[in-house]
Amino acid sequence: MNAGYLPAPGPAIETDLDEYWKSYETNVKSLVVSAKAFFPTANPVRAAALASVAGALVFPTKTVVGLSGYLVAKLAAIKAIEFLAVENPNIFCTAVHPGMVDTDIFRKSGELAAGFMVWLTLPEAQFLNGKIVWANWDVEELKAKAEEISSGSLMTVRIEGWPFSYA
Known about the structure:
Elements: H1 17-38, E1 47-52, H2 68-87, E2 91-97, H3 111-120, E3 132-134, H4 139-144, H5 146-150
Parallel strand pairs: 1-2, 2-3
Helix pairs in contact: 1-2
């Protein structure tokens, strides 16, 4: 599941509200619309829903000024995937950053992202259900941390420094 829309960069208060909201509708609403269409007919034994997200979310806000219309929507998309995973336990859902791949933007093909996304559909990647992952991560290193990743809030959206237990 993937749809993306990048409004013209600019400060939020100067951006056309319809453009800003179009990014949210395209990047978030499209996930829910797709899930509503796909999930009821999905293979009850093994189905997967992958959503592509933006890696710029990890950068300090001051380094991506002008991209709030896009990045706020992509952050909401990650949380939507977390909910879809919990609410639909028979369907594997994850948010995937395609990695720093040289595409036309970065000058190379998307083989890394494609291979990683195929791996995510395998049963051995089940521990990543509801998580955000990055295609550049080493699969063997991820598998070595499977218990740590699946049993906690690693690789999810949360507030760092929250003073109460997440349990």
